[in-house]
Predict the structure.
Amino acid sequence: MSISRRILILMLLLPMSTATAASALAAESASAPGNGVCDQDELCLYWGANFTGPVYDVQPCGNVRNYATRTFVNSTESLDDNVASIRNRSGYVYELYDRTRYRSPLMEIFSRDYADLGSAANQASSHQCIGS
Ligand SMILES: [Ca+2]
Ligand SMILES: [Ca+2]
């Protein structure tokens, strides 16, 4: 292959790699549910108080009707009766329930709220997006 042909191929490849890098950057800041990182627009459930330990990150306005069917990301710990704090980076309001299938309301998690659950820690078994 001639040098000029190699340069031509490089010139063709360069814009593509720049675009790939740009989309990778965009992906970092956008919502990426289930990756264990609390990204923008996600609801993030933490195993520990003060937003520590394993996390379960939910897509914008996503419901989970039975926490017993889920574990924290990269963890074997069940969500059920195991969530101690919640970050809501979305514009939605969520209701947290003591029981599965949205029964026995515990508390509301408001838009952009950071909630240490306190006395309601380790009780939640489901949650539902109830509006914006
Ligand atoms: Ca995420
Ligand atoms: Ca419960």
User: Anything to note?
Assistant: Residues 65 and 101 are 5 Å apart (CA to CA).
